[in-house]
């Protein structure tokens, strides 16, 4: 019986439209527009259109409210007060009220994250801004939208906080919010600035060197055009300064640049500081001196998804993840996801899931590729090694069995050698053995088995899977996956044979290798799981090459973040005792084929619908669409893993084999694992790590250095000295990072030989005080740890 609560937002949307709001549909439980069409065109007060958008299965869609539109006797504006993750929105509002006057009581909604949306009628159209008025204060005006009442995000609702009507926004507040930049009235053929000015050229070079994506010539040219650069100069700068120009012909670049200047919708110079709308800043903050851009909040979009696996993965793995995460000081979901990959890979490749009910042509096995992505020092290696603890009991059991097999082999070899030696020494002919059973065959040495491979060649892996097929799926473990990825085909003169093999290794089919001069070998199941960690900046640099054949899209990319120093918590005896019991139960499974129960089969079609819906979105990066295309098969792999892990946890108690049917509850949790957890992390990494070109982490580090030391001017030499292991070794990356900071409004190049930068005074005006405090505390903690470690080494040396 289906007891799911059906959310019906159609009536709410109609009521909002009747009150004068322009509404449009958002995806259920999300803030993202639900339709492919431009949401600004969809927003409407038309009851017929609203009924269509929230009809049938779409009644659960969230509601978006377009801001900046004519409303009552003015224009709708929403002041968004953010308190999520400790942001000081309420404190900022109180400080602003002391300077601008108290805001009148007005219609207020409590947001899903605990903040507030305060609705006002502005006397004139206002612009959008993020933390411009103060930390944690966003303004939603022309061209913006908010999530409306009746909606939920992460299961939490947007609720009405009072019974007030919508008040008029005082003119002082409206002036502080600033007017919008109106693009629709601009003539795209008329530049807004004098083209090719020295400052604009500097900004364009900084963007091309550090802030531009590595592909998409047309998009890059459009951005350079917006910085106030002529077509001829744009072509010159892209060829000379954009790393993405490498490998592209001059004709290709020239054509894309010409198209950008022919078809771009905005006038040249639209992104220049002097044509941005003028916002009146509140005292004591002064407008950035010297036509500075507003400094971007580099940390605003840099937070990975929060932990969410409670109630999704088997409970024991959640408990394991929490226990190890407490010790390491990282987010528990990262360790739990790594454990899911390792434990699932203990299931022999002879166990498969038939995906369809009536056809046997499509089946999957538990081959799981997982990469923990994070900053240097985020305990990626320790987290992976914690999960690999589940493989240790299997290797230990196999080692013990191998020792016994070797002892038996030694005895048999000794007997065989003694018999053949006796025959050779006898001068008289020896009677042949009368019966086949009496014939002594030369014994075959046993093969050692191991579940984990560290740095094997592809030929060695196929040979191992051919000689010991019971180890499949093998677990390929790399402490730093960038080395494994970069080492592909390192010993081959040409071609990409390694990558071709790895692409096959996710499917688990038979695979044959012809070894030169040594015959051929065939593995019945080329099944290899992969687990490891990789730095976010390294994977961002490797991503363009890895996306060409879908290798990267076969990974579950999980963002790991350091939450603290960890602690010396006591081991949980129940967890430690369960690890070998679960591991050995799974590794000992015999060959079997599983299927979905009838109700569970509906989850496959649900994941297919999810895949189609998300792939149709125009804002999804192409690499992420390739990942989405594989989600139904991944769902099957995790459904099989969850099913058998749940059995292994209780196998010793029930003394029964696993059911050959996967339940609807298990399939639903596997679907949620893919849709809610894996997709959230994939979306975060594709849109923040990859789009940042690999420099985001270093840019945040330099920005934190600037804040914690109150730096007013910064030289390349100082950056190298402060960051010797990364930026100190790579001058080109240093310039790219500083170029990104210039694009983000933090610095401005003042001398090029030697390079030095002036710091935007606005970064020290208080807007980043929370970041300043956190960075100062973090750096002091690191220095303290280093001092303690040094004292410990000195003490040990003295004792010796």
UniProtKB/TrEMBL annotation:
Residues 420-456 are annotated as: Disordered. SUPFAM superfamilies: Prim-pol domain. SMART domains: Prim-Pol. It comes from the Bacteria. Residues 13-173 form the DNA primase/polymerase bifunctional N-terminal domain. Residues 425-436 have a biased composition (Basic and acidic residues). InterPro entries: DNA_primase/pol_bifunc_N (IPR015330), DUF3987 (IPR025048). This is Bifunctional DNA primase/polymerase-like protein. It comes from Bradyrhizobium sacchari.
């Amino acid at each position: 019986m289906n007891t799911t609560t059906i959310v019906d937002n159609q009536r709410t949307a109609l009521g909002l439209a009747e009150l004068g709001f322009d509404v449009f549909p958002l995806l259920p439980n999300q803030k993202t527009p639900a339709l492919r069409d431009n949401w600004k065109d969809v927003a409407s007060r038309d009851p017929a259109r609203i009924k269509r958008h929230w009809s049938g299965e779409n009644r659960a869609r969230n509601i978006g409210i377009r801001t900046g539109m004519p409303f009552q006797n003015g224009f709708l504006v929403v002041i968004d007060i953010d308190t999520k993750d400790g942001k000081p929105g309420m404190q900022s509002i109180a400080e602003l009220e002391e300077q601008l006057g108290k805001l009148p009581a007005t219609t207020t909604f409590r947001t899903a994250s605990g903040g507030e949306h305060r609705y006002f009628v502005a006397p004139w159209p206002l612009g959008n801004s993020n933390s411009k008025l103060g930390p944690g204060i966003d303004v939603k005006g022309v061209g913006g939208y908010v999530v409306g009442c009746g909606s939920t995000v992460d299961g939490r609702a947007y609720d009405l906080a009072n019974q007030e009507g919508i008040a008029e926004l005082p003119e002082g507040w409206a002036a502080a919010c600033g007017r919008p930049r109106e693009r629709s009235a601009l003539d795209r053929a008329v530049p807004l600035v004098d083209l090719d000015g020295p400052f604009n050229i500097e900004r364009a070079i900084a963007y091309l060197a550090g802030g531009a994506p590595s592909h998409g010539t047309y998009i890059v040219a459009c951005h350079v055009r917006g910085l106030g650069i002529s077509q001829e100069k744009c072509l010159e700068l892209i060829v000379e300064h954009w790393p993405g120009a490498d490998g592209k012909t001059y004709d290709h670049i020239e054509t894309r640049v010409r198209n950008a200047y022919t078809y771009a919708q905005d006038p040249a110079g639209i992104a220049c500081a002097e044509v941005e709308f003028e916002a009146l800043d509140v005292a004591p903050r002064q407008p950035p001196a010297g036509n500075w851009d507003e400094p971007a909040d580099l940390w605003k979009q840099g937070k990975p998804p929060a932990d969410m696996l409670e109630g999704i993965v088997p409970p024991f793995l959640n408990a394991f993840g929490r226990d190890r995460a407490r010790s390491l000081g990282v987010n528990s979901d990262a360790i739990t996801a790594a454990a899911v990959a390792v434990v699932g890979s203990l299931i022999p490749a002879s166990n498969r899931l038939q995906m369809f009910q009536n056809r046997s042509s499509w089946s999957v096995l538990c081959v799981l590729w997982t990469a923990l992505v994070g900053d240097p020092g985020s305990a990626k290696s320790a987290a992976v090694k914690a999960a690999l603890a589940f493989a240790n009991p299997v290797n230990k059991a196999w080692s013990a069995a191998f020792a016994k097999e070797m002892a038996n082999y030694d005895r048999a070899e000794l007997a065989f050698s003694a018999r053949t030696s006796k025959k050779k020494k006898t001068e008289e002919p020896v009677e042949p053995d009368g019966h086949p059973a009496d014939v002594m065959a030369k014994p075959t040495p046993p093969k050692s088995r191991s579940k984990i491979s560290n740095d094997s060649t592809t030929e060695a892996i196929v040979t191992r899977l051919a000689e010991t097929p019971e180890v499949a799926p093998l677990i390929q473990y790399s402490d730093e996956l960038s080395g494994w990825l970069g080492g592909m085909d390192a010993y081959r003169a040409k071609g990409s044979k390694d990558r071709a093999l790895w692409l096959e290794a996710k499917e688990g089919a038979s695979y044959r290798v012809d070894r030169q001069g040594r015959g051929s070998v065939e593995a019945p199941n080329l099944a290899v799981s992969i687990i490891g960690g990789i730095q976010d900046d390294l994977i961002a640099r490797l991503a363009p090459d890895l996306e060409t054949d879908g290798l990267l899209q076969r990974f579950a990319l999980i963002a790991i973040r350091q939450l603290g120093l960890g602690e010396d918590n006591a081991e949980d005896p129940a967890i430690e005792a369960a690890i070998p019991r679960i591991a050995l139960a799974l590794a000992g499974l015999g060959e079997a084929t599983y299927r979905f129960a009838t109700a569970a089969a509906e989850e496959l079609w649900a994941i297919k619908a999810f895949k189609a819906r998300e792939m149709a979105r125009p804002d999804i990066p192409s690499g992420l669409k390739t990942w989405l295309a594989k989600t139904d098969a991944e769902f099957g792999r995790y459904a099989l893993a969850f099913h058998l892990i749940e059995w292994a946890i209780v196998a010793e108690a029930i003394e029964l084999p696993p059911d050959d049917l996967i339940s609807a509850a298990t399939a639903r949790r596997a679907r949620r694992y893919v849709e809610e957890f894996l997709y959230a992390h994939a979306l975060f990494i594709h849109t923040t790590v990859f789009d940042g070109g690999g420099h985001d982490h270093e840019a945040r580090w330099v920005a934190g250095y600037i804040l914690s030391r109150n730096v007013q001017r910064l030289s390349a030499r100082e950056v190298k000295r402060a960051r010797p292991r990364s930026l100190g070794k790579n001058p080109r990356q240093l310039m790219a990072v500083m170029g990104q900071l210039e694009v983000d409004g933090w610095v401005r190049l003042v001398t090029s030989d030697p390079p030095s930068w002036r710091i935007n005074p606005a970064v020290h005006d208080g807007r980043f005080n929370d970041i300043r405090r956190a960075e100062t505390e973090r750096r002091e903690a690191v220095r303290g740890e280093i001092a303690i470690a040094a004292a410990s080494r000195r003490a040990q040396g003295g004792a010796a």
